Amino acid sequence: MVELERREKIVLQTETAFFGKTYGEAMSLLIEARDYLASREPIDRQTLLPINRLRLCCETMRLTARLTQILAWLLAQRAVHAGEISQQDALGDHPPLGGVNICMDGEETDAADLPRGLISLLDRSRRLYVRVARLDDLARRQLELA
Fold it and tell me: What CATH number did the domain enclosing 134 receive?
């Protein structure tokens, strides 16, 4: 029994460390996106052709949607880890990580005409969204087994 408790404690510490790293990465990306959208994006927008301005607007909305979905999920999981809510409450009646049709679309978008700063944010937010979607799937499978 003591050995089982020790193993569960190690697993919990590992999961908490992983979660903390993912949460920190999401917050850093959010701050970077905020700074880009507040200062650099207006400058970048002025240099683009009208069609590419439209694409820039669409892609910045996609970036915002991804980060919103990621952070909402991570904040709910943070509440679970803090013991404020149960995993059932966090995931139970809620659909999986939302906005998949918006957040995952656009992978084939020709990025050559978009600013490099935005391309970087889009790429990193997409990879983080995929990672969090996998975590969501894992949490849901664990919840079903419990």
Answer: 1.10.8.930
Write out the two tokens for 70. Answer: 């990621």
pLDDT, tens digit, 9 for 90 and up, residues 98-121: 777 777 776 545 677 899 999 999
Q: Cβ distance 72 to 105 under 8 Å? A: no
What is the C-alpha separation between 136 and 91, in angstroms, rounded?
A: 8
Q: At what angle do helices 2-35 and 116-145 cross, to 10 degrees?
A: 150
CA 37, 38, 40, 42 dihedral sign is positive
Predicted structure pTM score? 0.82
Question: How many structural domains is the chain composed of?
Answer: 1
The vertex-125 CA angle with 96 and 15, nearest 5°, equals 60
What's the pLDDT tens digit per position in 27-43? Answer: 999 999 999 999 999 99
Domain range spanning residue 6? 2-145
